[in-house]
Amino acid sequence: MLDRINGPEDLKNLTREELSQVAQELRQEIIQVCAESGGHLASSLGAVELITALHHVFDSPRDRLLFDVGHQAYAHKILTGRRKQMPTIRKEGGLSGFTKVSESEHDAITVGHASTSLANALGMAFARDALGQNYNIVAVIGDGSLTGGMALAAINQIGYQQKRMLIILNDNEMSISENVGALNRYMRTLQIQRWFQDVEDAGKKALQAFSRPLAQMVSRAKDSARNFFDPASDNPFKAMNVRYVGPIDGHDLGQLVYVLSKIKDLEGPTMLHVVTKKGKGLEYAEKDPIKWHGAVPHDPKTGTAPASKGYSWSSAFGDAMIELAKEDPRLFVITPAMREGSGLVKYSQTHPHRYTDVGIAEDVAVTVGAGMALQGLKPVVAIYSTFLQRGFDQVLHDVAIENLPVIFAIDRGGMVGADGATHHGVFDIAYLRSIPNMSIALPKDTSEMRAMFRGALKHGGPVAIRYPRGNTDQVAEGTWPEMEWGSWEWLNPSEDVVILAGGKALEYARKAVKDLPGVGLVNARFVKPLDHNMLESIGRTARAIITVEDHQKMGGFGSAVLEFLAERGLTPKVRVLGIPDQFFDHAEVSSIHAQAGIDAQAIRTVLAELGVDVPIEI
């Protein structure tokens, strides 16, 4: 059947049996693509029937279909003319792993962060009505994304504005309301019938014309009856003035098509609650949807995959927290829904009473940390760089003003690869560096990371420790080297041309100066504070300085160095290598770094331009 589907219009006249066949083939296609290339497997499998029904009932791209986060939309991509490109997903030059406006007219929003779909949908509804247009707006949001304050605030506004739109709550078997029986199913069917709505409106108008008090009494009686027969009507969405329908089986295509066709044109906002199962149709993904949320290439029959190689920075962080928590009973770790990704599974098991997951609510994570610090705890907020952007005001307002001892463990600092522009963590240094009282550190290896976390606990005040995605070295338990706070480290002492780099960028700098004893190299492991003594000495003696960073040039480490030199009246030549003023799509990290001009080859090129006798090719 899929061979006959070139776009959503080809689904319109299919029978229920044919639609079911399409769904089966979609599921197999997604399994095969993720087995070969990796990708968002479990979430996409869970949304197959829902997406098939949506494209059967609605008219994309005229009707706007919004997918929160977008990682569950693989079936949507296949049904909207991108089937042949699916093997390229999350690869350089290929399809995005999320929805992306510039990729297809069927993708209503560019997305990768959670909880944004409802506000987008409300904005589109305002635009539609202001321009006198007529089309449907459907936002699909998961129960996880609904934990985000932005989503809840948007629902509040949607209920107030009463714009016509459909919200689909894709609930992965974590129902907000209880499962309901035949009577409630009948009540749900009744409440979505157009004639029922029309009769309600006509009856209300007639009674109001005859007697307003009587109309109000009947309305209260009707609401009471509904609450008695239908517990689902007494829920937070209804309280916010959003019509609530459901829950229904999100894998029953017939029921999905029937309900969607009945509610698509209802006035005002409607929420349809569908219950789905992540990993649906693939046994190993159903059993462990967390593991198979982001699949690596594997055997689709057995789920076996090559063993992961190396020891990740996230694991190094988690292990360090376990040891530090044993030493200090005040240490408490907070994560905004990233326990697995941040390496905190073992920590959450060994110290369950000093760990909390606040859900997809980064701003809440930061301010919970502030509250803990105010009352004597030593909180560590474990968060991806890209997601800390969502808590900037809280870092400044709730933490930094009072110089509170909150440590930010910033994972995925720098380019992240396959997740693309929405997830690259290349803005954190610039916005954190601008905040008074903030310290920023970039470890070159696990030993330095451990020294920085222990040092941060002693130092006090807000501290950001930033490390990249990928692997690092593993050290023995109990390894806690000493480090002077704010100090840099000479790796290759030479004062003619000096390279300053920290974190991931230091790897490239080391490779670039290999066998070049005449080029100085400094591990600039603190961005704030800078090592003023060392930098001033270098500024007075060096002919040229090269700064290298896996971060935006604008406002980053190189900017900090230039500011310092200008304040001191020091004028060596300075070349700043960093991410240029543009967004980069998904690709291998090494490829992005080469394009951005911060890899070892780029450093060698700059050395040659500065008159260093060096073979450019490495």
List keywords for this structure.
24 helices; alpha/beta; globular; 618 residues; five-stranded parallel sheet
Description:
The strands form four sheets. A seven-stranded mixed beta sheet has the order 8-7-9-10-12-11-17, sandwiched between helices. It has a five-stranded parallel beta sheet with strand order 1-2-3-5-4, sandwiched between helices. The protein is built from 24 helices and 19 strands. The relative contact order is 0.08. It is globular and about 80 Å long. Helix 1 (16-37) packs across helix 3 (48-57) and helix 13 (313-327) crosses helix 19. It has 618 residues and is of the alpha/beta class.
> From the alpha-carbon coordinates, what is the Rg to the nearest angstrom?
28 Å
Helix fraction bin:
40-55%
Q: Tell me about the biggest sheet?
A: 7 strands, mixed
Spatially, the strands of the biggest sheet line up as 8-7-9-10-12-11-17
Intertermini distance: 52 Å
Overall mean pLDDT stands at 90
Strand content: 15-25%
Concise description?
By secondary structure, the protein is of the alpha/beta class. Helix content is 41%, strand content 15%. The chain is globular, with a radius of gyration of 28 Å.
